[in-house]
């Protein structure tokens, strides 16, 4: 058994954003020594890690040399140099999730093929190597409007995803490799956080539900537990576990899914790391997703995934029309409400729709939490 | 309203030990800029604060100059230079808890007199300016054996406190100002965390109970909620609130109390800061004591103090006979148990009885938590 605690053991994290920052609360709690690599000198992880290094996550040499310094390497963002991970593994370095898993997930075309090969239910799709091929596919009736366009590379936080309903929508797309996916008519968008360690121990968190704004069609609330039939929830959990096992994933995996009008569950996509849909766990769960990720990649026993109370997460994004030094207007008003915890990611500058933080609302009664969440949403403003 | 979040606001913390370290999880969560002063370059707070300074907490110039740099000053240890705080306040600096409050608490003789003056129930006592006076007091029958001896200055973690039953016990005492206190025959040792902000908002946490080892007479478990009659609990809460108000305390105040055989509540002593008896709150409470302290000293609204689940805290202290690089033996065994979270303070070297960390056990059922806590206690060992 390696001695991780207050020892010379070194954990490396590729990426120094808010996910890394929240992971560092738990490496600190365990006094595990950390090294973080991020391109920005203003990265939220710069403090609280033991050693911060500025560098390009897509550069082979940078990632390889960083990886050589540590005992176990993980990442908090998928867009990292894969070849460096492959080489590090060849040299015996522990990289979790593995390069093999990441390779299948980094490219959304490969990810979809993987679901097909492994009989994991997912929306029908066609892959196109560039925009000309995509246009040809429409002309030839291989695909029909409307459809969901996804760039196969580099998508993040809804970027690289569009619903294409018209020629005008199509005209706006960049010229990249992409997939065109059947537009699913869904009742609910759900997610399950699965955690798995190298020994094969596996646990799932309760199903969460993304509640959309009725007009804006934007996710407003992530709600745990999802207000759905327990049989549907069970189905979602079984599929999520299957996905984690098929990927031989190690660490926290967020599996995003659709519940169709026919109550089928279709896997939309996965994130091989702690995820926005699991942020509620910091306050609501026996073990939060960040601690759980650390337990998993160090092959420690996994923690309990049950909830202590109901939890709802609201993202804090920069308000339209505001760019500059951030002000969290009315934050003291939401702090008066029961069970409300703001999380500020530490970005000094706001801009429209920039993810600046999130707020968790917990309550023994999820319907009460939902009411408070709405008040939170209507009260706090991220302005400049 | 001051803008504390991702701003130029500066919070100063005197002391950089484990209490400060745990406070920094929450300053990080809120992205509040922190300055920490501690004598040791190996202080647990050295990472995760924005600016660390090595320096003597009892030195006037050091504390004064440090305080000048920040907007609000607090402390995580009571043994700090009081005159520097007085001067900083005179110059308009916000110091919480205030120098006036700290002055009454720093000297245990003053603290006891304060309870008498404010009609707060406490054990009878006599104050002695040195050891010769104390011996004289015994000879003159002003006090009788057995009694509790407490050094008026610098006591910490049970140091500076002895039960004097014989002349031999007396002989071992150092020559300091002290009090001799009536030895209370208590049923239970209880504590209540009270939090109060400068606006006068006040909240209390549920009463916790210290469970003692039947033979060793050492606190083994801090249990929340205390397994006592609700009327006794109510009495303890009322007294704790009275203490906080009498001190005009700002921040978290831990009030330690005895429940006598006659079910009277006597105040033993207070700690004007987050305290060991409130560590359970990190996992078990709606708002943990560290976040609560920060809310209070910044005059933000206080958070809910209710528990989400039952919580028990076990201290992790260095095993007898072990000095050197620390190893947390069987830590992976306790991590298998439901609702168990180890907290490692980050001290690289263990020595007998050194406080190295703590473990929290949470469970919806406090009796289940108690069973798991005993397994934890019997499993993990802090060795070298």
Low-confidence stretches of chain A: none
CATH-defined topology of the largest domain in chain A: D-amino Acid Aminotransferase, Chain A, domain 1
CATH architecture assignment name of the largest domain in chain A = 2-Layer Sandwich
Major sheet characteristics of chain A: 9 strands, antiparallel
In whole angstroms, how far apart are the ends of chain A? 50 Å
Looking at how many chains there are and whether they match, the oligomeric state comes to homodimer
Work out the largest interface and the residue count of each chain: A-B, 46 and 46 residues
Strand residue content of chain A: 25-35%
- Helix residue percentage of chain A: 25-40%
List how many beta strands of chain A DSSP finds: 22
InterPro entries (chains A, B): ATP-grasp, ATP-grasp_carboxylate-amine, ATP_grasp_subdomain_1, PreATP-grasp_dom_sf, PurK, PurK_C, PurT/PurK_preATP-grasp, Rudment_hybrid_motif
Protein name (chains A, B): N5-carboxyaminoimidazole ribonucleotide synthase
Subunit structure (chains A, B): Homodimer.
GO biological process, one term (chains A, B): 'de novo' IMP biosynthetic process
Detailed description of the structure:
The first copy, chain A, is α+β, with helices and mostly antiparallel strands and 384 residues long. Chain A has three domains: 10-95, 3-Layer(aba) Sandwich (Rossmann fold), CATH 3.40.50.20; 124-182, 2-Layer Sandwich (Dna Ligase, domain 1), CATH 3.30.1490.20; 186-383, 2-Layer Sandwich (D-amino Acid Aminotransferase, Chain A, domain 1). Helix content of chain A is 29%, strand content 29%. In chain A, strand 10 (186-196) and strand 11 form a beta hairpin. The termini of chain A are far apart. The relative contact order of chain A is 0.11. Chains A, B: Keywords: ATP-binding, Decarboxylase, Ligase, Lyase, Nucleotide-binding, Purine biosynthesis.
